[in-house]
Amino acid sequence: MLYIRYCSDLDYEEMVADICFDNQQIAIISQDGGVGNMKIEILPSGDADEALSFPLDEFINILSDARQKLAKMHTKFDVIE
User: Fold this and answer.
1) pLDDT of residue 80
2) Phi and psi at residue 52, in whole multiples of 5°?
3) Between β-strands 24-30 and 39-42, what pairing exists: parallel, antiparallel or unpaired?
4) Per its UniProt entry, which superkingdom is the organism in (predicted)?
5) Which residues, in sequence order, are bridge partners of residue 42?
6) DSSP structural state of residue 79
């Protein structure tokens, strides 16, 4: 199962979205370059012999949801500051 975990990571200035699959973090979406310049970091698997496999549409939807929610969080914090 794919899911998103939003958090504040000390390695990044802004909030990040951890993309997880079966309780394993597989990617990080960061917005340190601004909302229009988000980056995704694909993390190496703990078990290099086994490829991760999940539905493409589900992965695309998770990425889209993370992008939208991070953009909203960024805007919300900009208003507060």
Assistant:
1) 43
2) -80, 140
3) antiparallel
4) Bacteria
5) 27
6) H
